[in-house]
Specification:
Length: 407
């Protein structure tokens, strides 16, 4: 056998392997972008992610790297060197998504290089931890905003003591450009807290700029939330199957969203200790507004969750009810819950998201005669204003009151 003959099999295997990676990466990116769209990412973010991921596909196609090594630091460094890019948020996001789906063993490691902030910023973060009991996640996100703010001030040679609202607005306009409206509100609030601290606690700025940090008026807030009509609910449940462990898990999650109005995050945090199958009660301990509540579980929902726990849930030491499908089994994330519910909706031909089930639940409560205050407690809202949005969708009740119509 000649040297040429010895090299031919490996070349053929490499070509097949490249095709495998290319095909799977394309499918993974398509699923990831659909998920981003379903959870409400801004169009600008979707477009920037797609551009970078298209480059990543070309990179994978032109290399012989395996799927196992595609989402590693070494691969990322090679991609940076070829493309000249430094910020790889799209690839990092894709790796976290695939990790949550059980498609890769671990996500890309976060950059661990410490970022030094001036003492005043670090003092504020310590103040948040000590006096506000801020979580590590909140501190991490706040630090991200403050790092960008400090870099902006240094670049433009702006002294913190002479800060003006025009400079704050200019920073926010630049910093918030890639983010969705909800994320902008959160980051704006974090900077507002720092400005309050500078004025009230440290007397560093001469005027309290926090009340001046506002976003543009969002008239869309008056728009009623989307919900599913009865025919669409029938269509959704007709499309659900129980042919696999994944199907059974999705069916149980859809039931919890539709019959109890739970957010994806609340579904992901349900523990086996929170459910009483004998009394058909569910304790929801970690709500968005930190309002724990014990809710009755409809019989269909109890049976759906029990079917998953008994027949489809992997054996695990984790107490979370909903787990990933592939080892090592981990509790599902809120994004994972929302993704699978939205996927079931798309399969049924519905262009809706997991939150539509929550809105539908509120609509059903309203039509059954519950007061707005009862609905507020059931939904776990902090403010009655949030619940009042659901009044806009109760067309039958409006027609009954205005025109004395009966149904």
């Amino acid at each position: 056998m000649t040297n040429t003959d010895q090299k031919q099999p490996s070349k053929k295997l490499g070509s097949h392997h490249d095709g495998y990676v290319y095909q799977h990466l394309n499918q993974a990116i398509e699923d990831y972008l659909q998920w981003m769209n379903s959870v409400g990412y801004a169009r600008k973010s979707l477009q920037s992610h797609q551009r970078q991921l298209n480059q990543f596909v070309c990179f994978s196609k032109n290399t012989t790297i395996s799927w196992q090594k595609l989402f590693t630091s070494d691969c990322l460094e090679a991609f940076k060197k070829i493309t000249g890019q430094s910020a790889l948020s799209a690839i990092n996001g894709l790796s976290r998504y695939l990790f949550c789906q059980g498609k890769i063993p671990q996500p890309l490691p976060k950059r661990s290089a410490p970022i030094d902030l001036p003492k005043i910023y670090e003092d504020y973060l310590a103040h948040q931890q000590t006096h506000r009991q801020a979580t590590a996640h909140h501190i991490s996100n706040t630090k991200r905003v403050l790092v960008a703010f400090d870099q902006y001030l240094q670049t433009d040679k702006i002294d913190l003591g002479s800060l003006k609202i025009e400079q704050v607005d200019a920073f926010l306009s630049e910093f918030l450009a890639p983010f969705a409206a909800a994320t902008c509100r959160i980051y704006r609030c974090m900077l507002r807290g720092f400005l309050k601290y500078l004025y009230h606690e440290r007397n560093i700025i001469k005027r309290d700029l926090a009340p001046l940090v506002v976003g543009r008026r969002e008239y869309a807030q008056a728009k009623p939330p989307n919900f599913l009509r009865w025919q669409e609910i029938q269509k959704l449940f007709a499309g659900l199957t129980i042919a696999s462990a994944s199907d059974i898990r999705t069916y149980a999650m859809v039931q919890l969203g539709y019959t109890m109005g739970l957010r994806p995050k609340e579904i992901s945090r349900i523990s086996l200790d929170h459910i009483s199958f004998s009394t058909q009660q569910l304790k929801v301990t970690e709500r968005k507004g930190t309002n724990p509540v014990e809710l009755p579980m409809p019989e269909h929902t109890v049976k759906a969750v029990a079917a998953y726990v008994i027949g489809a849930r992997p054996d695990s030491e984790h107490r979370s009810v909903f787990l990933t499908l592939h080892p090592p089994f981990r509790p599902m994330s809120a994004n994972g819950v929302g993704h699978h519910i939205s996927k079931a909706m798309r399969k049924a031909g519905l262009s809706s998201t997991a939150y539509w089930l929550r809105h539908t639940y509120a609509q059903n409560l309203l039509e059954s005669g519950c007061s707005i205050f009862e609905i507020k407690e059931m939904l776990g809202h902090d403010k009655i204003e949030s619940t009042k949005l659901y009044l806009h969708v109760h067309l039958k009740l409006m027609r009954k009151v205005l025109f004395d119509e009966t149904f």
